[in-house]
Amino acid sequence: MAKRRNFSAEFKARVALEALSGAYTMAELASKHKVHPNMIGQWKRKAQESLPELFAKNNERKDADRDAEVKELHAKIGQLTVENDFLSKAFGR
Fold first, then answer.
1. In 10 A of CB 19, how many CB atoms?
2. Domain span including residue 54
3. Contact (Cβ atoms closer than 8 angstroms) between residue 16 and residue 47
4. Number of domains the chain contains
5. Which residues, at least 6 apart from 44, have a Cβ–Cβ distance to it below 8 Å?
6. Does residue 61 belong to any structural domain of this protein?
């Protein structure tokens, strides 16, 4: 029985981009990469479906990361303020 081959995400993306470019037919890509044309079609379709989400999530992710960073910095500022007040009282400045 033949062992099922696993392809890396990078390989799938590269082949899907070639398929999207239209420079080669599916048969040519299948021969070139030794992959069944149906697999290339699936990867191409998945890439086409995922592209809008990629751009939408990227912006949302950046906003979420920025919000988390702001919260973290505010917490640090609060902590440093408390420590500063404590030390100034302790040393009488």
1. 22
2. 9-90
3. yes
4. 1
5. 16, 19, 20
6. yes
Question: CB neighbours (10 Å) of residue 43?
Answer: 24
Summarize pLDDT for 15-40 with one digit per residue, the tens: 999 999 999 999 999 999 999 999 99
Rounded to an integer, the average pLDDT of 73-90 is 92
Tell me if 4 is assigned to some domain: no
Residue 2 lies inside a defined structural domain of this protein: no
List C-alpha distances in Å: 11 to 15, 20, 35, 71. 6, 14, 11, 39
User: Which pTM was predicted?
Assistant: 0.58
Question: Would you give the distance in Å from CA 26 to the centre of its chain?
Answer: 27
Question: Is residue 1 one of the residues assigned to a domain?
Answer: no
